[in-house]
Every structure is written in C-alpha cells, then in structure tokens.
Amino acid sequence: QKEVEQNSGPLSVPEGAIASLNCTYSDRGSQSFFWYRQYSGKSPELIMSIYSNGDKEDGRFTAQLNKASQYVSLLIRDSQPSDSATYLCAGSNDMRFGAGTRLTVKP
Amino acid sequence: GAVVSQHPSWVICKSGTSVKIECRSLDFQATTMFWYRQFPKQSLMLMATSNEGSKATYEQGVEKDKFLINHASLTLSTLTVTSAHPEDSSFYICSALDRSGNTIYFGEGSWLTVV
Known about the structure:
The complex is a heterodimer. By secondary structure, chain A is mainly β. In chain A, 0% of the residues lie in helices and 51% in strands.
C-alpha cells in the first residue's frame, strides 16, 4: 500500500474558482511531501514541496500540511484553463503515485 | 530551478536489441533516483529506486535482469532495457532526490518505441 493516497476523483471547476486537491498519508517516515502537475504526454513538473506543518504559498498555489490529521492538500486560486492537468502527490519516503486527480478548469 | 535531464527524448529500436536511457541531475547531487514507466492514459508506475553506489531496489513485478539500472555517480543514473520487445514501448521517466531530501525533480521523459 502506498504511503500517500489520493482519493479525490476528477475535479471540474469554473475559471477563476478555487480548486482544492487532497491527499492523506500513513506514517511511513516521509519528511517532505510533493505536489506535481502532469500534462498529457509530458513528464510531471514540481509545483511545490512542503515539510513544515501549516501552509506554504507560492503565487496562486498554497500547499497545506497537517501532520496531526495526516493530510496534505493543494489549493489553486483563480484557476485558469491552463491549470487543467493531472495533479499528483507523494511523500519523500514513498515515491509511488496513484492515478492522481484530473482537474479541468472550464472557461 | 534544479534540472534533471534525460537522454534520449525519443528512441526507436528493433525488437531484441537493448537501449540505454540516461538521467542526469545537472545542478545538484542526487543520492537517490527513481525510474518510472507510463503507458498512455495510465498512471506513473515506479519501476525501481536507485541509490548511488548500490544496487537498485526494484518494485514487485519488475524484472531486474530486463531493466538494468546503474547509478554510478551522484549525478547520473542509467536504465537499460535489454532484449526489448514491442510491449516495452512506453514513456520512461526518471526523477532525482536532492541531497537535502526536500525536493524531487523529474526529467523530461524518454519515449521508447520498439518495432
């Protein structure tokens, strides 16, 4: 079983809305967690890494890590059609991925 | 930002031959590198984890004698697909963990077509 599980199915939001993506994790020792975006036919690109409890913001993206509840999330503010992609999360101690969350931002 | 480079980006080989894919961390030292395979419209599948100077750890179901991984230096890992068959045609991607352990970057991927 993977350490990090991404449970949310496909997500569709209108342009300009906030997209919320979530992952839960079991305690396998990962100190850092990562969010990646993958466009079809391309390699994943790192959006953000987080290792401290709390929020980390970078532009329109905010990663949240809650160690007590064992979840890591990604918020995308002012979603754009170009954000439409598959989003993947993983922990540094287990770099196996699930299917990810397919986000569609509708104009 | 940090860059991980893969070469070649595209390769076509004949069935039965071997092909080598290189993964280089260009501006950081990577103690650990990961190799993935992804078929169209499917998830990334972790094939193996390689640590510099030691043998790779393969995921269940991945043939270590068919997919040879070498991580001879802190900036280079190679994946050799031996005796390639058409079913090995896929998108192969590597990623690298920087020494701080805080960030993992992906290479651009390598498309392999076996004819």
